[in-house]
Amino acid sequence: MPKGTRLPKNAETFDFYDPATCVAISVKTIDTRTAARIKEPKQIYSSMKRNIDDAANFTGGSKGTKIINSSMISQREVRIAVPKTTTPDQWEQINRAITYGAEKNINVKITVVK
């Protein structure tokens, strides 16, 4: 992300906002290695859906001197990091959430991490 796009810590919903492109980005991690998420992969979809809904329903917020509102945003993104050990059943739920995001006009990007 370009310098100066990081929103203050604990800003509502979004972590980055680029005024040049009007893109607001929420950055999350999901630990798919927990026993509960291995046993019940649908928990991953539920978690991602909440993040997507938060991004879709965001109307505005301020933290410190940074203020953004929905009229300033042309594209909303949710970027999620998941471990490389994510199982095929879990990937099915992740892909389901990506489709849901597209239906809500939210660009969902997944990054695989160690």
Automatic annotation (TrEMBL):
GO terms for molecular function: deoxyribonuclease I activity. InterPro entries: CdiA_EC869-like. Residues 1-111 form the CdiA toxin EC869-like domain. It comes from the Bacteria. This is CdiA toxin EC869-like domain-containing protein.
